[in-house]
Amino acid sequence: NDWMGLLITFALIGSGLGNPSTFGLINPVWFVPSKCLLCLLHMTVFLVFALFPNGRFVPQWTRWLFIGWVLIDIGFVFYDAPFGLEHWPIWLSVLAIIGFIGIIMCLLGAQILRYRRVSGAVERQQTRWIVFSLGISLVGLIRGSLGLYAFPLIFPELHLFTELSPP
């Protein structure tokens, strides 16, 4: 009965899919539906971060960030398409990237403001658990990335990550 829980569940399940736009590479019929699904997942993740933990936009101006997010995300997701960022003027592409980073920073600031001034004790504890789990995930991601890219540099004689050439 908790729609915020359902929204988070949808975001987590969608994140587990990886990049659904790869389905469009398998069969061109799925190009547009897979890109639309990717946009929907990005919007869901944004909404989770904007509405967590109580399901309201706090502060009120964060609802306008969502509109900006949707417009910029459509350009990024459909980058391969004939109407994507690739065909925009360079100044508009740079403006979109700056807007994307700005929206993320505003959303982070809104969450800090919400935590300090609006959240009660239960909501603060929920926020701490989410920040803790995101921190653990980030450490694992960094560790995995460093291991993947640093291992061949540290042990070049093993040749584990090089292509096998025929004799």
How does this structure look, described?
- The structure is a single chain.
- The protein is 71% helix and 0% strand.
- It has 167 residues and is mostly helical.
- It starts with a helix and ends in a 13-residue tail after the last helix.
Keywords:
167 residues; mainly alpha; globular
Number of strands: 0
CA radius of gyration:
20 Å
Query: How confident overall, as mean pLDDT?
Result: 80
Q: How much strand content do the residues show?
A: under 5%
Low-confidence stretches: none
Which sheet architecture does the biggest sheet show? none
> How many angstroms does the end-to-end distance come to?
63 Å
H/E series: HHHHHH
- Counting DSSP H or I runs of 4 or more residues, the number of helices is 6
Reconstruct the topology from this structure.
Blueprint (H helix, E strand, L loop, with lengths): L2 H14 L6 H4 L4 H21 L10 H16 L12 H29 L2 H34 L13
Helix pairs in contact: 1-3, 3-4, 4-5
